[in-house]
Fold this protein.
Amino acid sequence: MAASDLVVVILAAGKGTRLKSSLAKVLHRAGGRPLVEHVVRACQPLGARKICVVVGHQAEQVTAAVAPLRAETVLQLPQRGTGHAMLVAKRALAGAKIALVLPGDAPLVRTETLRAMLAAHRAGQAAATILTAVLEDPSGYGRIVRRSASTVAAIVEESKLTEEQRPLNEINSAIYCFSLDKLWPALAQVKPDNKHHELYLTDAVALLSAQGDTVLAQVAADSREVLGCNTRADLAAVDRIFRERKRLELMNAGVTIQLPETVTIDPEVTAGEDTVIEPCVQLLGKTRLGARCTIRTGSVLHDALLADGVTVEQHCVVSESRLDADVIIGPFARLRGHSHVKGGARIGNFVELKKSVVGEGTKSMHLTYLGDAKIGAKANIGAGTITCNYDGFHKHPTTIGNRVFIGSDSALVAPVRIGDGAYVAAGSTITENVPPDALGIARGRQVNKPGWAAQKRRALAAADRPKKKPARLRKKTARPQKRIARPKKKPTRIRTKSKLRRVKKSRRR
Ligand code: UD1
Ligand code: MG
């Protein structure tokens, strides 16, 4: 097959000053992808001989974003405007007759729209064809000054609009087809006579028209396709449109989405028929849902693979993990690090799985951490079980066999194996392997001390009882107190040494 006469040029060298960001504009994301990636993807099916991306600001990062899509890059340093960007790319475009030129910051354009525009360009044997749109609020865009019903006289940037031109609401999308034998001589005449001293590609259009060449305008059927992203508000508006498109795609494929405007779905996500997605769910990355799944409100799935009939209860976070048929997880479960939950298993609330495999029909319902663990089928993992997989230096595995019962609040210090059918007593700290069908018990033996608590209470109560204050600190009351006569103390007898001896003798007798 002969090489195509078409080349695609995507202008992506600018900084994006109006975004007020340290990140190059075309790397900002909308609809789950960097802006420039959307543009490259829209052009891929056109069969061009090459897709050439002009990079400049953060060239390395932009190149890294487009290289996997088999796009070539050309470096524009410094950036002296869209016309200059085309001149920099000239050598890379050798051999092509028609260039489809797109800005890297208008990501909503669809392949069909570009195809229709190329067909109009070829049919009209035009020097240039411009994709335009009629907008209610055209502010910020260059405006189209028509020559006739189908042709264009000039594109006037907003800063240069005259009073009569100000009401014009047909805008330049900055998506063009150029016949290159016409474009290069016109560009050579463009002067940097604007406040930024840049070479504008738009000025080449006016020159072509002035010299009598055909410049066509192709009005986009859906004006939203041409929206550019110059500000954060533009980014948000474009993102909203992408998300709406994706939700519609899934709904048309038989998926129920409740309160769709609250649901975020990335472009590569797929879902089977009769799957239900509740409000405020995010399905991100390469997530794939089978048929008849239910994803309840507040759950976030990133690169998750769900077979048919899976239920993800409220507020779960699943990343890079696989759930087989009829699994139920949550509410409030977290699965990560390539975990795999096999058919019919149940993962309950506040259970975290990291790089773990849970066998068929196994249950782990409450407050548990299973990290680097391999668990067999039909096991029961009690509430509060912890696999102690990290010793401060390395991670170690825990292996739990089929039909194992782990009692609540057990710590399994890895590396450790619990054989098939074994029991672990509740509250154990297991540091050694438990053989199949054995009971592993590792905790202090219980001692009951009868009456201990009652005795303790009495002692505490006595200690708390207020002590009598000495007389001199006692409050004197106004009422005269009755004097109670105390019995007189007997005077202490003074005994001499000889007397004492006599007393002792008499006692001995
Ligand atoms: C441009 C058009 C305007 C149109 C609008 C549509 C010009 C002069 N104006 O304005 O008529 O209505 O797009 O969105 O073209 N770029 C380079 N090298 C440069 C300068 C820019 O590669 O030296 C790239 C940018 O990275 C960007 C694209 O060209 O992806 C367009 O530049 P931008 O600054 O966004 O132009 P606008 O002001 O939006
Ligand atoms: Mg722009």
The mean pLDDT is 94. The chain has two domains: 3-226, 249-440.
